[in-house]
Amino acid sequence: MKDLNQLNNHSARIAVLLLVAFLTVGCAALEEAQRRKQERTRQQQQERYVTFERPNTEIETSTADSLTLTSEHYTFTFAEDLLTHPDYDEPEERQSIGKGALLFMESLYNYVHDIFGFEPKHQLNVNLRQTHHGMTNLATTSTRTQTVYRNGEWLKVVEGIDMDFPVGMFNQRDVRAHELTHAFTNIYLLPTWFAEGIAVLVQVEYARGKSHRRLDLHDELKTDLDGRNAVQYWKGHLSADQLTQFRYSYSYSIVAELKKRFGEDFYPTVFRLIEEDQLHQRLPGEMTTSFLVYYLSQAAGQDLVPFFEELKFQVQHLTKSEIVATIMQANQEKLGR
Q: So what's the pLDDT on residue 329?
């Protein structure tokens, strides 16, 4: 009987070990299958970027001098400072260049829409210039909003989206992808570091840009004088300093790391959650990182506050009710002014 019990115990241990081995192999196989699926998706998107399908859209010349052309999603304007440029000083030249540019931008629009699963509700204004803010290497995308008072609260309503390119920057495909990503996401009043990180992600990993690289989130971390991550309170390209390039690359590295951990559907889910709540419309200013981390955690299915604390971000746990209460308080303070 003792030998029989020992045999049964031995058999049970073997069964447990086999089960553990099976589950381990199964999990590893599942993770590998998921990784391969994500890689196939990324490769397909990259191939689509290189071989754009011609969009089914009509392009119209809005003015007799061909200074403005329109398509389904864009109004394309040649700025006055281009009228003396030898490549743009004749209406026929502007019409030809403008039509080609809009065909590409419409294809790019469809491409970015496929990545995120949503699109702006307004037509995009693309302005082509010789210089922008006196510079030939600065492209920007800005969202014009109006604050209106409805049902006892202040709401930000988008009135228009402007994309400004010097000629040299517009001719770079990855820069156009970067700025169009801003046109899609700026409506959510995202923290600057996240908005730029998402734009660089599309620029580098989908549009094959070479201007930014992945950084080690721990070994290459930089902090400000208060010990906070140097990207958290970044104000963007118009506040350029010696850390500007680092901030672009580090912000991209955070965004890329989260995408690596949680998959291709992670960011479409984040934006879907933000869109469903519509709380961004009620914000008095730019979304805080803590507000954003609430949605990142919801999309990830786990608390991401420790992840950001480890990277020296100043963040706190927030519930939706706390976010709403903070917004309501800000609105009340605005009413009291």
A: 82
Identify which of 42, 47, 336, 39 has the alpha carbon closest to the alpha carbon of residue 205.
42
Please give the pLDDT value at position 58.
85
Residues 6+ away with beta carbon under 8 Å from 177: 49, 108, 111, 112, 202, 203, 206, 207, 209
The CA dihedral of 246, 252, 258, 259, to the nearest 10 degrees, is: -160
Q: 311-330: string of b/e by CB count within 10 Å (b at 16+)?
A: bbbebeebeeeebeebbeeb
275 Cβ contact partners less than 8 Å away, ≥ 6 residues apart:
118, 188
Between CA 272 and CA 117 the distance in angstroms is 8
Q: Identify which has the larger pLDDT, 116 or 24.
A: 116
Q: Domain boundaries in the chain?
A: 38-188, 190-336
Q: Does domain 38-188 have CATH number 3.40.50.300?
A: no
Which helix or strand (DSSP H or E) is residue 127 part of? strand 124-129
Full strand arrangement of the beta sheet holding 74-78? 60-61, 68-70, 74-78, 124-129, 153-166, 140-150
CB 169 within 8 A of CB 226: no
Give the rounded percent of residues in the chain with a pLDDT score beyond 90: 64
The predicted pLDDT at position 335 comes to 61
Confidence of residue 62 (pLDDT cuts 50, 70, 90): confident
Q: Are 98 and 76 in contact (CB under 8 A)?
A: yes
Q: What's the rounded Cα separation, in Å, for the pair 232 and 200? A: 16
Please report how the helices 289-300 and 320-335 are oriented relative to each other, as an axis angle in degrees rounded to 10: 150
